[in-house]
Specification:
alpha/beta; 18% strand; eight-stranded mixed β-sheet; globular; 2 domains; single chain; hydrolase; signal; Aminopeptidase; metalloprotease; CBPA6 Carboxypeptidase; Alpha-Beta Plaits
């Protein structure tokens, strides 16, 4: 299997690519559906070995330029998760935050923190997944007073975006390790609670470790089409199944049979609704594109508190860049990335959470979903600066 990049240079090329990718059922990495392929914008596509023989000559015949980003995907996957057996992964005191962890390891780690840091960490479940797994959340913060504002952070809505859960774990580690020494972190944990969900789509994430590294959706069954899963970021009750979502169960952006059809989405939506007065920020972590996005996703329109959100994004992106010079684009999701309906970020914003952001972490396609483990640390370090920046912005009044 290969990953290739195409940038259509005309409307003709755009139409040809949309049609070909639809017909061949290739796995689009960027954008998320053929519908979003537009002139002058990057399309990254994973081409199965048996399709390579027909697709690449077809592109050459149509005179459409392409570049090969990853020439041997199997080998690249091996490079990412190879040599796991001899790693010391069981001892939690020496938990390695610079490698990717399976769902079981992440859950063990959460239990361990819950036992070890009971003054700052409280672990609970908001419900069960389609396959019956608990949906764990860590509540992080000093129990300094009964009522505190809160920040919600989730990672891994899309199963194959492994750097997401890695960041959620990194955030918790940083909070616990620097709480004593870093005045900013102390302020954050004293004045706020953080609800952190390291793996939102637990079934999908588990499946991406055991069966298909590039699985995106949940794992619910569709009886009519023998296809599994719904895009958990198209399943929210905000302009549900409108532009940028698919009605077909086999598509990667399938919106589901109805809003909140997925138990994972329903459980988190229920929790957020219940705590909507307390939660002031919603942060969701995705990959890949190096962007910081805010509402709206489903339409081209300016949000009422645009100035506050825009300045928070601007400052967060600059803080992020200060670490390694990585420049993130930022702006409303619809115009910065593409229009998509039924997203968690739009839903959170519509439900009264004034600061709603979606991060698209590294990189911009060289590794795509296979970001090497050696890039976990720099990615998380710079992202941490952005998140702290947004959080501190939240504690200052913005009008």
């Amino acid at each position: 299997d290969k990953v290739i990049r195409v940038v259509p240079e005309s409307e003709r090329e755009t139409q040809i690519l949309r049609a070909a990718f639809n017909r061949l059922k290739v796995d689009l990495w960027q954008p998320s559906s053929p519908f979003h392929i537009v002139e002058g914008a990057v399309a990254d596509v994973r081409v199965p070995r048996n399709t390579t023989r027909s697709l690449l000559p077809f592109l050459q015949q149509a005179n459409i330029q392409y570049t090969i980003l990853i020439s041997d995907l199997q080998q690249a996957i091996g490079n990412q998760t190879g040599g796991r057996s001899h790693r010391n992964r069981r001892s939690l005191s020496g938990y390695n935050y610079e490698v990717y962890h399976s769902l079981e390891e992440i859950e063990d780690w959460m239990h361990y923190l819950n036992r070890t840091y009971s003054d700052l960490v409280h672990m609970f479940s908001v419900g069960k997944s389609y396959e019956g797994r608990p949906l764990y959340v860590l509540k992080l913060g000093k129990r300094s007073r009964p009522y505190k504002k809160a920040v919600w952070i989730d990672c891994g809505i899309h199963a194959r975006e492994w750097i997401g859960p890695a960041f959620c774990q990194w955030f918790v580690k940083e909070a616990l390790q620097t709480y004593q020494t870093d005045p900013d972190m102390r302020k954050m944990l004293t004045q706020l609670y953080f609800y952190i969900m390291p793996v939102f789509n637990v079934d999908g994430y588990h499946f991406s470790w055991t069966h298909d590294r590039f699985w995106r959706k949940t794992r619910s069954k569709n009886m009519r089409f023998h296809c599994h899963g719904v895009d958990a970021n198209r399943n929210w009750k905000v302009k549900w199944c409108d532009e940028g979502a698919s009605l077909h169960p086999c598509d990667d952006t399938y919106c589901g049979p109805f809003p909140e059809s997925e138990p994972e989405v329903k459980a988190v939506a229920h929790f957020l609704r219940k705590h909507r007065k307390q939660i002031k920020a919603y942060l969701s972590f995705h990959a890949y594109a190096q962007m910081l996005l805010y509402p709206y996703s489903y339409k081209y329109a300016t949000i009422p508190n645009f100035n506050c959100v825009e300045s928070a994004a601007y400052n967060a992106v600059n803080a992020l860049q200060s670490a390694y010079g990585i420049r993130y684009r930022y702006g409303p999701a619809s115009s910065t990335l593409y229009v998509s309906s039924g997203s968690s970020m739009d839903w959170a914003y519509k439900n009264g959470i004034p600061y709603a952001f979606a991060f698209e972490l590294r990189d911009t396609g060289h590794f795509g979903f296979l970001l090497p483990e050696m890039l976990i640390k720099p990615t998380c370090t710079e992202t941490m600066l952005a998140v702290k920046n947004i959080t501190l912005h939240l504690l200052k009044k913005c009008h």
